[in-house]
Amino acid sequence: MKLSIVLSTQPAQFQAATFEGDLETNLRRIASLGYDGVELAIRDPKLVDLDDLERLVRKHSLNVPAIGTGQAWGEQGLSFTDPDPEVRRAALERIKSHIPVAARFQAIIIIGLVRGILKPGVDLPQAMDWLIEALREGSAAARPHGIRLALEPINRYETTLINTAAQGLELIERVGAANFGLLLDTFHMNIEEADIEASIRLCGERIFHFHVADSNRWYPGAGHLDFKSIIGALDATGYQGWVSGEFLPKPDAGTAARQNIACLRQI
Ligand code: LER
Ligand code: MN
Which of 20, 39, 152, 192 is flagged as catalytic? Predict the structure, then answer.
């Protein structure tokens, strides 16, 4: 099992980016805790010195399995389903601007809240059409670079668009791109799925990336999810990807990161 953990390259309101703050300090800590990789949450690649980032990541012998993009929504309100066409275009251009970053690391680009939520005055079929259009264009732009996009079903309290694995699979059918798949997150699945393991089996080879947090969004082992069973179901799909920790830095980031490794390595 290849393990990574989320690190935000800049301060963010999102609370489950386990690490944030000085980049090199955090990369050193993450590597020394025994992680194989770091999932980078990047609001805008223009705000990051990419050469320096790549140098530091390699210096600490870490991989970057995925790049989170949700802060474009969280901090700036960019989304694929905004009624304003300029906002939709800016969201898509932002996602496309992650492609060269992803290509440096062969990372997956995560489509989380940048899909948006249903805004007043927009009906669901319209939002879905905009979403599908954006995902087709984004996937087509990423494809020549060998880069994949993964949409994350997110619980109902954060978005009204694509809450469940089944909705994610339906979207995949409609987008129709081989390099477009899903990111499953156990925290969201615990809220939305009737049977987490069955949903994992249903998604099968369409699972491109995997987030772990327990039921309370603390590190695995701190809540009531059965990670032995969940990881077993994931493994049984033939999943070769990463298991990425995305949980609250509680009681502190180091303890949470250490407990996550202890729980998952034991499985
Ligand atoms: C991001 O991966 C996530 O899980 C969401 O909760 C972001 O809001
Ligand atoms: Mn997640």
Answer: 152
Q: Is 154 in the pocket of ligand 1 (CB under 6 A)?
A: yes
Q: Which ligand is nearest to the CA of 191?
A: 1
Residue 39 bears catalytic tag: no
Out of 20, 192, 193, 246, which one is annotated catalytic? Answer: 246
Average pLDDT, the chain: 97
Say if ligand 1 is within 6 A of residue 152 CB.
yes
Q: How far is CA 158 from CA 116, 193, 209, 258, in A?
A: 9, 15, 20, 28
Q: Which of 152, 192, 212 to mutate to test the pocket of ligand 1 (most atoms within 8 A of CB)?
A: 152
Q: Whose CA is nearest to atom 2 of ligand 1?
A: 112
Catalytic-residue membership of 54:
no
Cβ pair 189, 226 in contact under 8 A: no
What ligand is nearest to the CA atom of residue 110? Answer: 1
pLDDT (tens digit, 9 = 90+) per residue, 169-196? Answer: 999 999 999 999 999 999 999 999 999 9
Taking only the tens place, the pLDDT of each residue in 24-57 is 999 999 999 999 999 999 999 999 999 999 999 9
**Residues 2/241, Cβ–Cβ less than 8 Å:** yes
